[in-house]
Amino acid sequence: MIDSIIWVLIAFGTYMLLMIVIGANYAGKTQNSEDYFLGGRNLNGWVAALSAQASDMSGWLLMGLPGSVYAFGTGQAWIAIGLFIGTVCNWLFVSSRLRRYTIVANNSLTLPMYLENRFHDKNKILLTISSVVIIIFFLVYTASSLTAGGKLFASVFGMNYKVALTIGALVILIYTFLGGFMAVCTTDFIQGTLMLIGVLLVPIIAYGIVGPDNLTDVLNSSGVAGGASSFLNIMNDSGKRVSATYIISQLAWGLGYCGMPHILVRFMAVSSEKELNKSKAIAIIWVALSLTFAVFIGIVGRAYLFPDILGEGDFANITSENVFIEMIKQLFVEHFNLDFIGGLFLCGILAAIMSTADSQLLVSASAVAEDMFKGVIKKDAKDSTVLAASRFTVVIIALIAYVIALNPDSSVMGLVSNAWAGFGAAFGPTVLLSLYWKRINLPGAVAGIVSGALTVIAWDYIKIVNSVDEAGRAVKVTLGKHTGLYSLAIGFFVSLLCIIIVSLITKKPSEEMDLEFNKMLNEEV
Q1: Range of the domain at 490
Q2: pLDDT given at position 449
Q3: Beta-carbon neighbour count of residue 497 at 10 Å?
Q4: Which residues pair with 236 in a beta bridge?
Q5: Which residues of the chain are modeled with pLDDT < 50?
Q6: What is the DSSP code string of 415-456?
Q7: Cis bond leading into 307, ω under 30°?
Q8: Which 8-state DSSP code applies to residue 179?
Q9: pLDDT (0 to 100) of residue 119
Q10: Exposure of 465 in the CB half-sphere (CA atoms within 13 A)
Q11: How far apart are CA 464 and CA 393, in angstroms?
């Protein structure tokens, strides 16, 4: 057993050292803030596609989603359906226009900078508001990635959660600090490839061992609510029929895509329209395969790990979010004695975690250093000063997210859900309408961002509804808890409505803004 852990540790060490080497390699090539935040707009199609999707899916793809399916059944797949639709729409309807418009809008390097230039915001209102929103929600989002990393190390090596969390956070911090955007995208390309290989091969091998003829029988024996027929029915969840509210909430996850700064920045950085078109096909195929097989992991894992049931008996201290980890350990370490290979597949989970955390750190740093520091506080700051401020900000944000993630009982799914809703509601409608509606103006954009963010915060965190807990006591709960409706579904449409109403009752955009809009539509760059 000790030999097995050593080989897995060697695999992890090799992988993490490779990430740090990549960061160090790009450190010398990063000369200014545009290099650090956007890589000089030199991404090729493959790197753009895989880095966007790897940074999107995070530990949720290999821990949160399979764990939900393992625990509650395929009714949890509605989230995957919503995310697939959202991914496809984002690449098809947002990517090209956003890339062109950020170039037309004074070569904008970040999402807040794009919004400022798009709406000719001379008072820096949009820049300030959007930067604050990014910092707030990315702290939660980064914490979710660090939490997933801590759980992975703790589960694989049996180490203390806080020690495991510290190791994962340090590696991510080092290569992001050193290499900036190109280091992040290059490592994300490797991580996206590793994630795809792992998510395809592990459940297929496990399914072959369980056998198609035995799958239903084993599921019936494993204590799932409603038996195999309910577990495998997408219209059931935890043995009960899903409601319309449930389906709407799960599908609403797809609305978040056009408001995710760490995904949108990949569109902005692609080298050409030709490369971007290549990226679209690659990304859509990647996400279709990844989401489908992540659901498959939850199904096969329930049968393959039986009679062991995560969260019960001897496995009471292991949550369902660890189903993919436990499958890899039993398959490669215990079944085939391929310890190093098993370690590499476990690195696929680490890759999913790191690929999102690094992007979140970088976008948060850009919001502070490029948008707040250079854009508002010290407008004449030199590139070298902004670069130093960026790296300093990466460290500070990583430390704060680390503190948030110190609670080992934090749910990866819960943290991701809150941050995803915040970004989707605050930025999604504004970005979308900025690309498709000429009439949207500065007051409308401000109203959209503020109303979307505040709606999510109020829906998820403010307890205003009277209810009764399991013990029969009167308690106050949030609107989200009371209705069961995901805050993004509400926040997105509140934001959309506010943008339209405020834009229509306030002054029309200037002629110069109209000309820029038309240039974006007609110019290919």
Answers
A1: 2-522
A2: 96
A3: 14
A4: 241
A5: 1
A6: HHHHHHHHHHHHHHHHHHHHHH-TT--HHHHHHHHHHHHHHH
A7: yes
A8: H
A9: 95
A10: 15
A11: 36
Q: Tell me the C-alpha distance between 232 and 484, whole Å.
A: 23
Instruction: Output the six-digit token pair for 370.
Output: 């490029």
Q: Is 473 left (phi over 0), alpha (psi -120 to 50) or beta?
A: beta
Angle between helices 77-89 and 273-304 (to 10 degrees): 170
Block residue for tokens 């996850």: 253
Instruction: Say if CB 51 and CB 192 are below 8 A apart.
Output: yes
Residue 88: Cβ-neighbour burial (10 angstroms; 0-12, 13-18, 19+): middle
Q: How many CA atoms lie within 13 A of 4 on its CB side?
A: 17
Which pLDDT score is estimated for 491?
A: 96
Per the structure, the count of domains in the chain is 1
H or E stretch at 466? strand 463-468
pLDDT recorded at residue 389: 75
Tell me what pLDDT residue 485 has: 93
- Identify the burial level of 515 via C-beta atoms within 10 angstroms of its C-beta, where 0-12 means exposed, 13-18 middle and 19 or more buried: exposed
Domain CATH code at residue 60: 1.20.1730.10
pLDDT given for residue 479 in this prediction: 87
3-state SS of 362-417 is: HHHHHHHHHHHHHHHHCCCCCHHHHHHHHHHHHHHHHHHHHHHCCCCCCCHHHHHH
Neighbours of 13 (CB within 10 A): 11
Considering only CA atoms, give the Rg of the chain: 23
